[in-house]
Amino acid sequence: MNNFILDKSDWKKVALGEITEDIAVRIDNPAESGYDRFVGLEHFVSGDLKIKTWSSTENLVSAAKEFKSGDVLFARRNAYLRRASLVEFDGICSGDAFVLRENHKKIVPGFLAFIVNSEPLWYYANANAAGTMSKRVKWRDLAQFQFLLPPKDQQARLAELLWAGDAVVEGYDRMRNVLKSVKSAYFDTVYCHTEVKTMSLGDCLEYSQYGISESLSENGEIPVLRMNNIVEGKVTFDDLKYVDSKSIPKLETLMLKKGDILFNRTNSFDLVGKVGIVDFDESVTFASYLIRLKANDKIVLSQYLNLYLNSTIGQRLIRIHRTPGVSQSNINPENLKKIDVPILPISKQEILIEKINSIENAEVGYKALQINSKAILDILLNQIFTP
After folding, report:
1. Which DSSP symbol is given to 60?
2. Which CATH superfamily is domain 197-343 in?
3. What is the dihedral of CA 336, 340, 346, 348, to 10 degrees?
4. Right CATH number for 12-149 from 3.90.220.20, 3.30.70.330, 3.30.390.10, 1.10.287.80?
């Protein structure tokens, strides 16, 4: 992409603390504060210009900070994650976030979101973060970050351009979410409006099997899939641990095969019950808090079974059996085997799989467009704020 040509001759060098201030209004009783939205560090998405998710303050007991619509929330812990976003509603947030309020005599509303998401600022924030385990940046240090600030009329034009770019990125993201909903609704519609017999999951399987319980390491011979490797109905190869083959008797019986389905029997209450299909041929095994489900392909195709278990109906039936815990929730595998599975003729299963695959292919296409659009937006943003 060609450079975005800007005349910065009338831009003035300023410090971040000159155009914004850190607001620290403490809220001791969040549940009784009158605010219903809480933004924790888990609600930030690296590189996003706006906060899009939050949780309720209903059961929140820890003290928090107040923010107002138009503020920018900056996660001061682990600055390398690059989490700083505009918020468009009133609420409270984690004490590990700065609440930055713009000085509108010097910058146009929303312009701060671009400044704090530029490459020079993040480089500075990381260089000035302190701590051993979880580094934090202090406001007195961040406030000294210097950059070239355009006049307000130019700020307005640049903001219009950058927000338009962000709207394109968000548009592709919305299309992906629409396709996810269409995929789920399509399966649910087939199930609800077609007369089909049902069979217990246990009767649809050739067998089920627990994974290995041996200690894992950062390096080794055989990759081991864990709960984090089940993502949106698929099995991924991210953040792997390893085990040596000599430490596991009969390891060959625990190696995964294409078409195997992994069920996550232990996780947080919100995530337990995740299901994903192995769609690759690799030498890999799996951890004990996952269960391998081997479909009886004379009754049900593995892809069809995976789609059903990931559907709204399938997940609802699975999560009925969640048992709450302090940090981990569990689902008894024997209860899992009791859930009903709609059994279509194999030919109709194949048609449904083809339809769903076409939707997923479109989803992949929109994801690629979203990634490319975000890359272009980042290039523009960094060219504006790089001296």
Report:
1. -
2. DNA methylase specificity domains (3.90.220.20)
3. -120
4. 3.90.220.20
Complete DSSP assignment for 69-102: TT-EEEE-BSGGG--EEE--S-EEE-TTEEEEEE
The number of beta carbons lying within 10 Å of the beta carbon of residue 342 is: 21
Q: pTM to 2 decimals?
A: 0.74
279 CA to centre of own chain: 22
Going by C-beta distance under 8 Å and a sequence separation of 6 or more, which residues neighbour residue 261?
Answer: 275, 276, 277, 278, 292, 293, 294, 295, 302, 305, 306, 309
DSSP state of 203: G
> Which one, of 2, 47, 42, lies nearest residue 370 by Cα?
47
- The answer to whether 283 touches 255, Cβ cutoff 8 Å, is yes
Helices (DSSP H) in the chain: which residue ranges? 16-19, 111-115, 119-127, 139-142, 152-192, 302-310, 312-319, 333-336, 346-385
Listed residue (133, 135, 125) closest to 100, CA to CA: 125
DSSP string of 214-253, one letter each residue: S--BSS-SEEEE-GGGEETTEE--SS-EEE-GGGSTTGGG
Instruction: Determine the residue type at 364.
Output: V
Asked whether the CA dihedral 312, 313, 318, 319 is positive or negative, the reply is positive
Residue-wise pLDDT tens digits, 232-266 = 889 988 888 898 877 787 888 999 999 999 999 98
Task: Tell me the per-residue pLDDT of 76-114, one tens digit each, with 9 for 90 and over.
Answer: 999 899 999 999 999 999 999 999 999 999 999 999 999
